[in-house]
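Lab notebook page, bench 4
Experiment: in silico fold of construct C2
Operator: M.H.
Input chain length: 455 residues
Purpose: comparison with the prior construct
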Amino acid sequence: MNVNSELLGKEQVHKLIIKFGSFAIITMLATGAVNVIGTLIVSRGIDVYAVGAIGLLFPLITVYFGFSQLVAIGAASYISRMLGAGKKKQALSATAIAYVLTLLISLCLMVGTWLFKEHILTFLGATGQAKVLARAYLNLFVFSIPFTAMVLLASAIFRAYGKIKLSMLVILVESGLIIALDYLFIFVLGAGISSVALSHLIAGSFAAILGMALLLQIGGGEQALTFDLTIIKGLLSIGISALGRSLASATFALVLNRMINQLGGDDPIAALGTVNRIVLFLTFAIMGISQAMQPIVSYNFTAKKSTRVKDALKYGLIYSSLIGLSGSLLGIFFPNQVVGIFTNNAEVLDDAALIFNMQLAVFFSFGLQTLAATYFQAIGKAWMSFFLSVFKPLFILVPLVYLLPRYLDADVSSVWWAFPISDVVATVICLLILRRAVKQMPQQLAEKPQWHLFR
């Protein structure tokens, strides 16, 4: 097996973060570019209400992403720890098992969505023309679920093996094809919203096949598929935090969409759909740093190299905070200029500028929130990572969305205050928990590794 993961335990940490981080950020920004450029193409080539219709499906797409991450993130962490412990055979077995699990889960999601899509659209709050557009998109998008999941898995596994260029390649291929096909279908062929979903299906299937072909070369022809329940448990127990984060985000998005429909109607829905895709671009950049840090922490924690673990956390926090600060500056000083690129509808533009400002006001703290959960995930403390992942959307944002319109103005603008308030509260909690964990690290490394809940 050709594995170059040893550099995780030897090369200078800040260089590793920059090396892994640059590739990971490029990879995540490519994914973000699909959202940003795709939104621009749809809003200019169709209309901004088509963007809103796709935005109504955001909770559902977030659920798909969460189940993909359940296996992908779990596999990346598990494989990194096995390589750190010198157990390369177990790492290879985990790779094969992760593929089978991803295929089974994604096929179940695809079939379930197809059978119950009308009920799902109604549950998501889609009505009128928005429901017609969302249905047209979902009818084709549902078939891309398995392919997208396998692309995410391949990228995560390549990253765990230290093959960052391959991790980046499969994502860049998929993202580049989606953008090119969106442009072709909408501006050249004059197709409608369903063609956007077709772009995802074509690009995802091609990138998934490419990823599988490249992964087969890592195995070198070795027999790897043995269904070890210990490995399956190890994968899913770590990935549960990523699933929890996505399900919590989907729950919040559903509650938010329903509240906005009740208070504001189509214009703020279209504005939120546009802003969410722009903010996701910045979020993905920070997730790139998180992905770069995860295998470094996993490998060195298992190898009992506490200084390297602390350095990885330190540099990860510095770089992610700088990205977050740039987002806050954009949100505070240039909201109208940024959202104005995507729409010239005056009513939607006013709402979008306000949402953009509120979502990014305290975005400089998002790196700390993300890396705190990633740290616990990387060292195998799945349930602490799960807690940090779901706490903000479920226990801060959802209650605020319900309460703010009651105690402030009964207007949709009061809802947007939930974003900066939740960021402040979540940052304080993550900081306190993370500081305590770092202080306990020497004791944890001295003990035999046991992946307990809140220990």
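Observations: The chain is about 80% helix and 0% strand. Confidence is low (pLDDT under 50) at residues 449-455.
Next step: discuss at group meeting.
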